[in-house]
Amino acid sequence: MNVHSTKYKCTECGKCVRDSSALAIHRRVHSGEKPFECTVCSKRFTALHDLVVHGRTHTGEKPYKCHVCEKAFGEAGKLRKHMTVHTGEKPYKCRVCEKAFRQSSTLRAHATVHSSDKPYLCTVCGKRFTRRKSLTEHADHHGNAHRPTGVEVYACTQCEKCFSNQRYLQRHMDVHSSRNKCADCGKCHRDRRALAEHRRRHAGEKPFECIVCSKRFTAPRDLVVHNRTHSEEKPYKCRVSERVFSESGKKTYECSLCNKSLSTASHLQAHKRYVHSDRRPYECPHCGKLFKTNPDLRKHVRRIHTDAKPNVM
Questions:
Q1: 113 φ, ψ to 5°?
Q2: Where are the CATH 3.30.160.60 domain residues in the chain?
Q3: pLDDT digits (tens, 9 = 90+) for 254-295
Q4: Rounded to an integer, what distance in angstroms lies between the CA atom of residue 70 and that of residue 129?
Q5: In angstroms, how far is CA 83 from the centroid of its own chain?
Q6: C-alpha radius of gyration, the chain, whole number
Q7: pLDDT beyond 70 at 245
Q8: pLDDT category, 105, cuts 50, 70, 90?
Q9: What's the pLDDT band for 310 if we cut at 50, 70, 90?
Q10: What are φ and ψ of residue 88, in 5° steps?
Q11: Which fold has domain 116-173?
Q12: 280-313: which CATH topology?
């Protein structure tokens, strides 16, 4: 079917679609018509397919199953995106540096690295940013009164971390919940998938096997990296020496206060808490002294209260 044919062309925006049914659905985008209503929550949709997919959020139905790890999804598109974890496929390539990504959203975020345009200005200190998210994160350190206009603050009551989206806060709260807590060591995780992966490390379970050498791994991402030792794929290239590597090792998380770069989001959070914050949430049960990190507290107990029981998590 020729989607470029004028036979099924929208008179509003000029977009061409494959048939009359698709054109009727597209026209509802302009009219705002949503004739399909969910019988559970009354949410309305433009297309019947969207209602069917939405209905699975109520029933819990996940008909699309990965044949590698048996993880299931409610939408075919999410399964296709998930399969790139096993295949290592990265179809979205940066036109500037040719770095490839599994998701288009990650590519769009990466593209800001090559842009000299920094439209987001901090009105307190004058520092500029390429992304609004970076400005919002930076503004947190000036206080809530200086956050960008129109950005709401959702603060965690347990660790004082702030979010600009309530959904992100709810997801974060799972870290403090016993729902995803490891029964062996007490560590909490953001979701059931992270907990399951963590439990495999305790059990020594390694369900992801290399089809070349039969080496097994706990997490699928470890298998993806390992596969490059056989394929000799080295997607990460040094811009200075042009030497290539199979792993990025790239420190992509930049501190908005001192510009130091770190390799993971958790390392960045720890850096901000340890270097830029005066908050000391860890209290010695023996003398009441406060510390910024749990390792500092444990070190203090070992050095000062050697005769006392550590009683520190």
A1: -65, -35
A2: 6-61
A3: 677 766 766 556 677 777 777 777 777 777 888 888 887 777
A4: 41
A5: 17
A6: 25
A7: no
A8: confident
A9: very low
A10: 80, 5
A11: Double Stranded RNA Binding Domain (3.30.160)
A12: Double Stranded RNA Binding Domain (3.30.160)
Distance between CA atoms of residues 124 and 238, nearest Å: 36
- Side-chain-side CA neighbours of residue 193 (13 Å): 7
| Bridge partner residues of 72 (DSSP) | 65
Does domain 6-61 match CATH 3.30.160.60?
yes
Crossing angle between the packed helical segments 220-231 and 76-87, to the nearest 10 degrees: 50
Tokens of 310: 């550590």
